[in-house]
Amino acid sequence: MPKSKSKNHLKVKAKGSVLPESILQAATRLFIEHGFDGTSMYEIADALGVTRTAIYYYFKNKEAILVALTDNITRVAAELAEQAAQHKELTSVEALRRVVSTHVKLILAHGHQFRIVERSEDRLPTRLRAAAADYRRSVVSNFSAVIERGIKAGEFRPTDARVTALAIIGMCNWTAWWFQPGGRKSANEVADIISDLTVHAMIRTSLGPESGSNISNVLRELRNEIGYLEQRVAEGSD
Could you say which of 3.30.70.20, 1.10.1140.10, 3.90.220.20, 1.10.10.60 is the CATH number of the domain covering 10-60? Predict the structure, then answer.
């Protein structure tokens, strides 16, 4: 009889020790290694050393785990981008640096989860897939707003804010595939490099004497200025 109680106690303890975050981490690792279809709830439980009942206590199936992973990444990304973009006391350069650095750090902290979301989002129910798309649009919108603010303030060179935002976000997102924890550069260093690269790509080139004698660069900037003005005029006449 005492032996039976001991077994029951161990099962209860195992169930009580597993947390949703642990399940998500284990599932993410297995989804990366074996694919979503190639991973079972039994394998997730086995990786954590618990019974399937402990997993089902929090998630009714693999799809529910994917829903949680997607909501975690896409929702938080949207929230962080909005927070960074809303700091009106920052200059446009400072705001762009912050929004890029924040996004990169989020991805690098949850790289495997981000990759799973990118690969398996089509498995989500329609309503939740639409919600994830809304979160992504929010990220693009906030990046675009920071860029547009910098253009209007004369800090950034004239360009299409949305296309530029998508290009920058794409550069940030790709880190989920190539970054190696414990590698040559830390996550913070990578975030600094990418945000610095982004800012220097956007800063407006001076057309004054200090710009040097390279006339082709001056002409290119003038064409950009004219193209931007034409775009603004066209938008105002719609």
Answer: 1.10.10.60
